[in-house]
Amino acid sequence: MKSFIEFINESKAQGNYVALDVLVPDLRLQYNMLGFDNPSSGESPPKDDYHCTLIYSKETNLDPTRVAESLVGFPSEINARVIGVECFDSIPEDGVRDEAKSCIVLRLESDVLNKMHDTLRGIGLHHSYPEYSAHVTLTYNMDVEEAHAYRDAMNPLLSGAPHQYIVLHNIRSETINEDYV
């Protein structure tokens, strides 16, 4: 499986990408902690590539150092509360649902993440998705039915568990296909 950086380098996209790294060894352990086997389809990111995207902007190309500097003053470590599991489905442009894939993500809640996102928009970055949804992806390219079954089984367990937090740190400010800070 390609890391996110390898994927970005191979893509034709231009723009800015800003994220925070997750401070845990391997989020796939979340599956095991909740009593689930690892999914049979899909791939998880390499353990050093779990991240929470702050903004993904295909429309802008700002200096990544300037972008990172706009976030000076925010905490160096952020505790984000896990509020649930979601599936992000992607249906091919030709609409063939048999080829659809899904990602399992941990949805996060954090006022700091939202303020960081707003700060990045304030310096001129556009967000290439309809809304900002703080999350960490656990598994990419899953079979849609398997992903939805995991989501449906994991959410009741998370809602009954004590609050779970993920620690985020280390701002990554990157110009897609160019510089990494």
Written overview of the protein:
With 181 residues, the protein is an alpha+beta fold. Helices cover 26% and strands 32% of the residues. It is built from 5 helices and 6 strands. It has a 6-stranded antiparallel beta sheet with strand order 2-1-6-3-4-5. The longest helix is centred in the C-terminal third of the chain and has 17 residues. The radius of gyration is 16 Å and the shape is globular. It starts with a helix and ends in a 6-residue tail after the last strand. The model has no long low-confidence stretch (mean pLDDT 81).
What labels would you give this structure?
5 helices, globular, 6-stranded antiparallel sheet, 181 residues, alpha+beta
What topology does this entry show?
Blueprint: H1 4-10, E1 16-22, H2 29-33, E2 51-57, H3 64-69, E3 77-90, E4 101-109, H4 111-122, E5 135-143, H5 144-160, E6 164-175
Antiparallel strand pairs: 1-2, 1-6, 3-4, 3-6, 4-5
Task: Briefly summarize what is shown.
The protein is an alpha+beta fold and 181 residues long. The protein is 26% helix and 32% strand.
Alpha-carbon distance between the two ends? 23 Å
Number of strands: 6
Shape: globular
Order of helices and strands: HEHEHEEHEHE
Count of DSSP-assigned helices: 5
- Mean pLDDT over the residues: 81
**Biggest β-sheet, characterized?**
6 strands, antiparallel
Q: What is the helix content?
A: 25-40%
Identify the strand order in the major beta sheet.
2-1-6-3-4-5
Low-confidence stretches: none
Computed over alpha carbons, the radius of gyration is 16 Å
Estimate what percentage of residues fall within beta strands: 25-35%
Structural class: alpha+beta
